[in-house]
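User: Here's a chain of 255 residues. Predict its fold as tokens.
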Amino acid sequence: MSNLLEIKALCKNFGGVQAINQFNLELEEGSIVGLIGPNGAGKTTIFNTITGIYNPSKGQIFFDGKDITGCMPYEAAQWGISRTFQNIRLFSNLSVMENVVMAGNKNVKYGLVDAFLHTSKYRREEKNLKEMAMNLLELVSMQEHADAIAGSLPYGHQRRLEIARALATNPKLLLLDEPAAGMNAEESIELVEFIRQIKEKFSLTVLMIEHHMDVVSSLCERAAVLNFGEKIAEGSIEEIKKDKVVVEAYLGKEG
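Assistant: Prediction complete.
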């Protein structure tokens, strides 16, 4: 199977601080891969360079055969890359439905004149968009909350809404930044099954940052481990768990 994402010798500096140093990763189409490591290791910085929030200092990023190094965030979304955030970023004052509809707007085919005049094309597209949004809300068991204000939802519901919004962009690659953060054991188990379902239903490739190793072990085929901006290990979950360098990075050296 071909690689959907390739990251080659990626570096990112912030002034004199090197957040990422010579990071390489290949992501096969249809795979689920974990990106793990201690806090501050550079994991979210990698997400930010993939999605165009940051420009890399060096290196290249290829997506679906295209060099997307230094792309703009809207271009990444158009090409099929979507993400969630470690700190949930919803339109808190809008309804649940409006949040998903806004994300799906990138796929509409009407123009400004159609929107201004409320042409039949505009009405048809808006109807289809709302139907798509409701289907996604049903998928994440949020349909009963469609009219609720997003900021009023419990934390776990907001996480599900954020994933529904990411799916509304019709992605090929889904980047999940700590999806299980703040969840208890039961919620984490439900999340694992949910991610499996959407991966199959939407034929997704998933790259996931996660500190809950039970979630990583249940979902990911392999993982890459970062520490101080450098990849210190990569392999199957069992190989990662037994790697002495990884254990030291998490727990510190004995003695």
